[in-house]
Design brief:
This protein is of the alpha/beta class and 260 residues long. Helix content is 52%, strand content 15%. It is built from eleven helices and seven strands. A hairpin with a 4-residue loop joins strand 5 and strand 6. The two termini are 34 Å apart.
Length: 260
């Protein structure tokens, strides 16, 4: 990871809205930044209203610093592919000890992606695209590591990867959404329970809209997945394939679904 941008982010973060709880500032930052990126491509008035209700609690100087935090995050991801927010979150000790919240170190996530699915990624060049389901996404570190492994195999994840990410924690979901959006990875990020499929919010990254993934997925799921369920979204409905996490012979859910 780029130490310069990470340390700059942490220094700036600690100097932003000092009269606010650190967790609240971090939560508000990832939330309003995510809303801004989403609404730049697909306007959602509920997100806009929530954005305005959050930002009014900050002084003008602190709002400027929040913008600079987004710039440091963007430059940090540009300098080196990594789980920038996950590592910062852990270094700032913002995780909940009560829930055992812990984000996998990026180096471990990268090793898992390469060792477990390196050969499959290399053999996917002739496939239309890969779909990936992350049932406990955290800040998106595993997805980012998988995307980097694709790049190392000369497969462009911005064009040949679509991801469905779920997390119970709304802050983690926003962290994931923000990083995948800046990395231009087509995805939907769901705040909800993977097992019950109950959700409170679904956001799709700009790359999802700009890449016309609704149409691509509709065609794929119509031909490949017969059983579907409906879940509420910020637009209208989203079709979630029950088979997006295919069962292996051992009855263990398989995280990755390589599309034929």
């Amino acid at each position: 990871m780029s130490n310069d941008h990470r340390q700059s982010f942490i220094r700036l973060f600690n100097d932003t809205a000092r009269n606010h709880r650190r967790f609240d500032v971090f939560r508000d930052f990832v939330t309003i930044a995510s809303y801004s990126l989403h609404n730049a491509v697909f306007m959602n008035q509920e997100f806009e209203d929530d954005y305005l209700s959050i930002i009014k609690h900050y002084k003008k100087d602190d709002v400027t610093k929040l913008c600079h935090l987004l710039a440091e995050l963007t430059m940090g991801l540009e300098a080196h592919t990594c789980d920038f927010l996950g590592s910062v979150f852990m270094e700032l000790e913002l995780g909940s000890r009560h829930t055992g919240q812990f984000f996998t170190p990026y180096e471990v996530a990268k090793l898992m992606a390469v060792l477990t699915h390196g050969d499959s990624i290399s053999n996917s060049a002739d496939k239309p695209f890969i779909t990936l389901s992350e049932p406990a996404c955290g800040a998106g570190g595993m997805v980012i590591a998988f995307a980097e492994a694709m790049l190392e195999s000369n497969v462009n994840p911005q064009k040949k990867l679509w991801v469905s990410c779920w997390d119970l924690d709304p802050v983690a979901a926003m962290m994931c959404y923000l990083q995948l959006s800046l990395l231009h990875i087509p995805a939907e990020v769901v705040t909800g329970n993977t097992l019950s499929l109950e959700s409170s919010r679904i956001m799709r990254t700009p790359a999802h809209y700009l890449g016309f993934w609704d149409s691509k997925l509709k065609t794929h799921w119509k031909s490949d997945v017969k059983e579907t369920v409906l879940a509420p979204t910020d637009e209208k409905q989203v079709i979630i394939p029950v088979a997006s996490m295919k069962q292996a012979e051992s009855s263990q859910l398989s995280l990755f679904d390589f599309t034929a």
